[in-house]
Amino acid sequence: MRFSWSLVIFIARCDASWPQLPDTALCDGTLGLFQRKLGRQERRAVQTEKPWEKRVYLVGTCHKVGSQLLRNVMEWTFDALGAKESCQYGGMGVPITFYTPEHTDCAEHPSSIRFDNHIDGDTISELRKETHNTGGFRGVMMIRDPVDMVISAYSYHHRGAEPDSIYAQGMVELTPAEGVPAMASRMLDTVEVMVQAAKNAEPDVMLVSFERMTKSSASFNQTVQDMVEFLFTDEISKLDQQKILNRAVQEDLHRGYNGLSSIRFDDHWVNHTNDAEDMELAKRAWHVVPATLSAEYQRLRKELGYA
């Protein structure tokens, strides 16, 4: 059912207008965002070995860092390249390949394509050891301003999304002045773990800034291109690169699409994109966060490179 739904989105995309795309872009499945006509040798390029047959790939996120944005872009990426199998650490999160059953735990069914919905520094270190003699690994990990993560988490759970989450308890009833300080306390450990993972990322894992990826369509395009180049270098054809980029734009909200960012929980759909006005109202309440807790967030922001 997940694949059928995604396929419908893709077909609809090719019937839509494409604001802000380069003039050379065509919606025909062959020319995408950074288009030029392929040379004869490039068109004839034949891939004899898939990148994930050479090494492991890791996609890492954490709560309200922009997890669905990165996961979805990478799902389109691996689908464009023909990947069929993946796993999730702890069986958590939605599979990162269309054909993978949900809750496919990497510990029980290890795959060369792995998704960690709660990425930490230990996972990165352990994967380095595991793959040291077998081709290594490459990965991408999303980071975000820690304060904005708190604001996003409050706005998301305040509207009732994922009510069973440990972060969600009581949030629907709390005003921003009540809920933002409470969420800041709940999210601190999550942010700490994200920062430690980010500090352990190089040279195997590319850090992807949520702010850069969502700034504009042009910035989204460039971020996806940088990710593709980091992960696959020259191991995939120009045609495959263009297929990836052409599909990934379905996750660019500046173009008016919602991609795969609505996911199913039991019998209802949850949209992971918060309302901008709700976010702004919550952000205005940050000043009531206790000074010692606010100082911890400012320290973590600096460690990630946020001024």
Structure notes:
The protein is α/β, with parallel strands linked by helices and 307 residues long. It has eleven helices and seven strands. A five-stranded parallel beta sheet has the order 2-3-1-4-5, with helices on both faces. A two-stranded antiparallel ribbon has the order 6-7. A hairpin with a 2-residue loop joins strand 6 and strand 7. Helix 5 crosses helix 10, helix 6 runs parallel beside helix 11 and helix 8 crosses helix 9. The protein is globular. The N terminus is likely disordered.
Task: Estimate the global geometry from the Cα principal axes.
Answer: globular
Average pLDDT:
83
Please estimate the helix content. Answer: 40-55%
- Spell the H/E element sequence: HHEHEEHEHHEHHHEEHH
Keywords: Signal
Protein name: Sulfotransferase domain-containing protein
Organism: Durusdinium trenchii
How is the topology of this model organized?
Layout: H1 2-13, H2 40-43, E1 56-60, H3 67-80, E2 87-88, E3 113-116, H4 121-131, E4 137-143, H5 146-158, H6 176-199, E5 205-209, H7 210-215, H8 217-232, H9 238-248, E6 262-265, E7 268-271, H10 276-283, H11 291-304
Helix pairs in contact: 3-9, 4-6, 5-6, 5-10, 6-11, 8-9
Organism: Durusdinium trenchii
Protein name: Sulfotransferase domain-containing protein
Keywords: Signal
